[in-house]
């Protein structure tokens, strides 16, 4: 049981330079997930009264607990842990250091001094699926996926719904690598999808390996996390991307002012935390216009993406006609929509 109110324990941070720590699961040079967070860290570093530090390539599990604990012992005021597998480690350390603010990315657990956050990346994933579905000639899309957790499954489903909104017969074949960052393995997984006829490769991975595989075969690709077009300029159609700076700035300012409170935050396109990377030159104007129109609908709240009827792979309706999936349903999603070829294991 924590005995110190979060606003009281955090107001001390405003009296001195705020120390903010970041923990990354992959190298900051991965061009993907960790790179996106690192760009935001650099922006936070430039704020008055703030100093930052980071540790990269921290494995999930005991290693992450050690790193989080070390930062807390060094009197960091605010610590961001940016991988799903850090959740339980961060919660354990948070209970030991009630005067530190802990923020966990992509998880669901909270405490009096620990919040969680993510972004509605499924929104631009839907848009990228529209692009992939429109650009595919075979109707077979490949998806190199990390781990079968709700975050990844939800993204695959959104991508598939987007693809089938413009190409109703499109299918999305999924290969699990059980990695976040392994360029060689992720590239090989993409090749296996190309071998079965996929002519657009998408991914939920941190490396540009799948993009490179697509370009080498002369087909298209959809990136992730950041604009990866420089790695495969002839293949890269677009990518769902992150911009963590506005959110991190908001949290830092709350801690500085002593107004921070634990919450579960899930901003999206409207808040500028997620978006779609620029289109590659091969994407026709008509496709761009259709996707941009849908983007405007999502920002305005007129398009909710997971609106029924939506059936699973077996044809069972999971979201009834006219119903919109609640956030709790999305956060726990463990089933694939129709059109996905693969298992959630």
What does this entry look like structurally?
This protein is an alpha/beta fold. 37% of the residues lie in helices and 18% in strands. It is built from 11 helices and 16 strands. It has helices at 6-10, 33-45, 62-73, 87-96, 122-135, 150-166, 183-195, 209-217, 245-257, 285-300, 327-331; strands at residues 18-23, 50-55, 78-81, 101-105, 114-117, 140-145, 171-176, 200-204, 220-222, 236-238, 240-242, 264-265, 274-276, 310-311, 317-319, 340-341. The protein has a 6-stranded parallel beta sheet, with helices on both faces. A 6-stranded parallel beta sheet has the order 10-9-8-6-7-16, sandwiched between helices. Strands 11-13 form a two-stranded antiparallel ribbon. β14 and β15 form a beta hairpin. α2 (33-45) crosses α9 and α5 (122-135) crosses α6. Mean pLDDT is 95; it is low at 1-14.
What are the key terms here?
16 strands; about 350 residues; about 35% helix; six-stranded parallel beta sheet; alpha/beta
The number of distinct β-strands equals 16
DSSP helix fraction: 25-40%
Query: What does the average pLDDT come to?
Result: 95
What structural class do you assign from the helix and strand content?
A: alpha/beta
Q: Which series of helices and strands comes N to C?
A: HEHEHEHEEHEHEHEHEEEHEEHEEHE
Distance from N terminus to C terminus (CA atoms, Å) equals: 36 Å
Task: Output the radius of gyration.
Answer: 20 Å
Sheet having the most strands: 6 strands, parallel
Strand content: 15-25%
Spatial arrangement of strands, main beta sheet = 2-1-3-4-5-12
Shape: globular
As residue ranges, the low-confidence spans are 1-14
